[in-house]
Amino acid sequence: MEEHIIKDELFRQIVDNTFEMTVLHTDYKVIYINETGARLLGGSKEELIGANVLDIFLDSSKEMIRERVRCALEEQKIGELIEQTIIALNGTQFEAELYCHPFEFEGKRAVLSVLRDISAKKDLERQLMNKIHEYSTPIVPLLDGISVIPLVGNIDEDKAQMLLDNLPTQIKALQDTQHIIIDFSGIYNLDELVIDFLFKIEAIMKMLGISPILTGIRPELAVRAVSIGRDLTNIRTESNVKKALTTLRGINQLY
């Protein structure tokens, strides 16, 4: 009997001090949470017992999590590893990997959920992608005072934000640049995200004292912009980089 108690206590200490947040819940109510989990959520084990497990997820994720729990309870289905944003008791958020497993506790169906804080890992990934986009989207000097930014591939939300964050810094490092040609001819997706990026990057250039010219804007992108109420007539454009250079050469010769 004493040996059994010792083993139970040893197991409890191991689970309490593991790197993962471990939660046992039934009917969406927490019936056990380890010390790591309580620490990550910023509370005590006592105040977290009885809490609704859905409360730590964003509203946009709750229905998906609810379905995962249902599948574990009713179909004995193991929830695959996924990444989610977790909300601590004080409202701060962190990113986590989690999976869930059907579990029987005191004769009742329950779910064992295990979460690992991956915020540091995700920050490193974002920094790496930031550098990749920084080096894959160079500002290329063409002539005195004239450079070009050749955009290629797809622009998703992350890439758009990285470009908006990185390009101003790169532009400030340039010497005597007065005009920048932003070439969209290599962009694959022609959607509202690209249109929004187009307007933002053009505005940023002007705020930095740079005269931007946008090239490679295909007709279907212009049509899409008009259809959603965005006016391209105030944006300086040329059909391609060659024509933009010809225009800028003519301007420079006037001075």
Automatic annotation (TrEMBL):
SMART domains: PAS. CDD domains: PAS (cd00130), STAS_RsbR_RsbS_like (cd07041). Residues 7-76 form the PAS domain. It comes from the Bacteria. Residues 136-248 form the STAS domain. InterPro entries: Bact_StressResp_Reg, PAS, PAS-like_dom_sf, STAS_dom, STAS_dom_sf. Coiled coil: none annotated. It comes from Heyndrickxia acidicola. This is PAS domain S-box protein. SUPFAM superfamilies: PYP-like sensor domain (PAS domain), SpoIIaa-like.
